[in-house]
Design a protein that fits this description.
Number of helices: 6
CATH architecture: 3-Layer(aba) Sandwich
CATH superfamily: Alpha/Beta hydrolase fold, catalytic domain
Radius of gyration: 15 Å
Oligomer: single chain
Number of domains: 1
Helix content: 40-55%
Number of strands: 6
Strand order of the largest sheet: 2-1-3-4-5-6
Shape: globular
Order of helices and strands: EHEHHEHEEHEH
């Protein structure tokens, strides 16, 4: 069993996040889904981005760190950090700062890396192709930076899917891509647990 911190996107802590956590729990994992947006949810990305800007990136990272802190247990296997889009970016930052991190599952989003970043964790990214927020040039740069930092990186691309294609309540939803994502992601989590 892995302990997973699952962070939501700029759409907030929506039913799709709870459904994802339930899938992971059904596979035997302990999953935590903190609400970084104080109960606010958004159907459109512009409204979610405006709220993110209002709260501020530093405050969102502080909230994510606060959510992770009680889950980091000395002497036990490290956390698996996971997130959707913005939540993926936050999860990446947390995972790279946690020497005990067990893995990183990124759904629809990545983040910049510091030049001195170093990690040996397994990373799996699921991303639309093309994706307006994760361009081809950016993903190539991100991949090279992550592998140089020592991460074992897998990238899964979904042609024609929308940005947050795993959320059935958003226009981006792609049922086939979402099911394929969850099949691959659950196998990844099982490997981390093994």
């Amino acid at each position: 069993m892995a302990t997973i911190l699952l962070l939501h996107s700029v759409h907030g802590l929506r039913p799709a996040v709870h459904a994802a956590a339930d899938r992971m729990r059904a596979a035997g994992h302990e999953v935590h889904t903190p609400d970084l947006f104080d109960g606010k949810t958004f159907d459109d990305v512009e409204a979610g981005m405006a709220y993110k800007e209002e709260v501020g990136s530093d405050e969102l990272l502080r909230r994510a760190v606060t959510a992770a802190a009680p889950l980091i247990r000395p002497g036990e296997p490290g956390l698996v950090y996971a997130g959707f889009s913005l939540g993926g970016a936050l999860a990446q930052n947390l995972a790279l700062a946690d020497e005990q991190a067990r893995g990183l599952l990124l759904l629809h989003g990545t983040s910049d890396l510091r030049e001195d970043a170093a990690t040996g964790i397994a990373v799996q990214l699921h991303v639309a192709e093309p994706d307006p927020f994760e361009t081809e040039d950016w993903l190539n740069t991100w991949y090279l930076q992550m592998t140089r930092a020592g991460a074992d990186v897998e990238v899964h691309r979904y042609r024609g899917a929308g940005h947050v294609f795993t959320d059935p309540d958003l226009d981006d939803y792609d049922a086939e891509a979402a099911e394929r994502t969850w099949s691959i992601a659950l196998d990844f989590l099982a490997e981390l647990d093994g």
